Amino acid sequence: MTRATVPPPTLPAQASPPEVALTDHPVHALAGVEVVALPVLPASGDDEHAAPLLGPGAAEVGDALGLDLVAAAEAGRATGEVGQVVTLPVPLGGPDQPDLRLVLLVGVGAAGPTELRRAAAAVARATRGRSAVATTLTGLHDDALEAVVGGLVLGSFTFSWRQGAADVVPVERVVLSVPSGAAGPDAQAALQRAVAAAGASWRARALATVPSNLKNPAWLADQARQVAEEAGLGYRVWDDDELRAGGFGGIVGVGQGSATPPRLVRLDYTPRKASRRVPTVVLVGKGITFDSGGISIKPAQGMTTMKRDMTGGGVVIATMAALAAVGCPVKVVGLVPAAENAVSGSAMRPGDVLRHYGGRTTEVTNTDAEGRLVLGDALAYAVAELAPAAIVDVATLTGGVKVALGQQVGGLFASDDALAASLLAAGEHAGEPLWRLPLWSGYEDKLASKVADADNGASGPAAIMAALFLKAFVGDVPWAHLDIASVGDSPEDKHEWTLGPTGYGVRALLAWLGSPDPLAGVGS
């Protein structure tokens, strides 16, 4: 008697990010708006009793509604602190806005990109469930658009698998008001880039949030296929038999204990009118769809977030989807080695030796150090087959990086200073900061194995040891490794982060790859 196959669960329809539009019409004259959000800056000077400063559009909104917004800000103890929200009900609407019900006074602090991103996220949280919001946050300076869109979209993120309707849904539509004449073609193009980057980060979060009773390697590969169809990317997937035949021993070894076999996904982006001389960047994302630790099993509490151990793979898939929208000028290949690290009679054991793509071997002394095993195969394949000008891998790889950096900064290792500098700058610009850690060669001897080329569970500083293990697979190719285990999960709703998987790295990679020359100085 055979056991009946249980069909996979069906993921309920999920909320979409807010629609974002740009206008140069004043916010007090926009019809159909339910909420108007206005910026508040800290008082100038040293007088602690001075009134806060209201930003663009406040005077006109106050006049139209017959409200003294400065007095209202003072009564609400508005300070201009970033993210502070003072709510003013408008139960009867306005003369030109019968649907208006709220005016929000939102603190923007120094009104730089970081502050505006956080203020916009506060607006998103304060307007959940609303139909339409208009705001002048983008009127504070010329470079505000990307930050405001990012905060609005990502502060709205939600995921629900409840019976019935979700209890929290994002605002449906946000209208960004800019000065007269500033909503032309260039601004519209910038808006499209900003929406694409924020939407890609939303996609990566969503992929990482899906529970592992649905999300397995085949499911993740199918999500990549859908992205390829939407974005016009090349697509290839290796199944278990093809991985075995192709010599991908790391991916096969990690996945062999699971009832859902592993996959390797490849996505290809080529810019329009690209010549053969256009260089190729390879992105590699760890795609462990659930990590039990294998036979070196994790404690129960250590598994609670392991549905998001494929965050690196989700980041790569989502980044590939948005490359055309941000105008990436180089060819990009995305590789996602996907496997479930499970416990069973067929699982890899401590002491097993795996042969990676290209022939390098690893002695497995810790089955919970599985991410580096699948990444090694993908890195070796990239070097051997794709002639990359640079490789960047992204992975929730080690608890050690969380010990070193906490939960607000991602770890960066790099073999090339120019590549490291570009990624650090991109992360800072995008609001996904990275900190460079050393590829200290003095620890390389700790990787030695008596029977194989390397030991996957070598003792020493965990994040550095993992990076050194990976470095052996890239040879002389300029390479960077983003260990985002520190930031793979947000412990709370704060700024543009929402409780749970973060999709950290998408915006940084798009800021880098969407720049005019991502490979400037790399390899020289």
Helix content: 25-40%
DSSP strand (E) fraction?
15-25%
**The level-1 CATH class of the largest domain:** Alpha Beta
The total beta strand count reads: 21
Remind me, CATH topology of the largest domain?
Answer: Aminopeptidase
The largest sheet is: 9 strands, mixed
CATH superfamily of the largest domain: Zn peptidases
The value of Rg in angstroms is 25 Å
Task: Write a structural description.
The protein is α/β, with parallel strands linked by helices. The chain folds into 2 domains: 19-183, Leucine Aminopeptidase, subunit E, domain 1 (3-Layer(aba) Sandwich), CATH 3.40.220.10; 203-513, Aminopeptidase. The protein is built from 14 helices and 21 strands. It has helices at 58-65, 69-75, 113-126, 144-154, 185-209, 217-231, 240-246, 249-255, 311-322, 371-385, 399-405, 417-430, 462-471, 506-513, and strands at residues 19-23, 35-41, 53-54, 85-89, 102-107, 132-135, 173-177, 234-238, 263-269, 280-285, 287-291, 331-341, 353-355, 361-363, 390-395, 410-414, 434-436, 454-455, 479-483, 489-490, 500-501. The strands form 4 sheets. Strands 8, 9, 10, 11, 12, 15, 16, 17 and 19 form a 9-stranded mixed β-sheet that branches. Strand 16, helix 12 and strand 17 (434-436) form a beta-alpha-beta unit. Helix 3 runs parallel beside helix 4 (144-154). The radius of gyration is 25 Å and the shape is elongated. The chain starts with 18 loop residues before the first strand and ends in an 11-residue tail after the last helix. The model has no long low-confidence stretch (mean pLDDT 95).
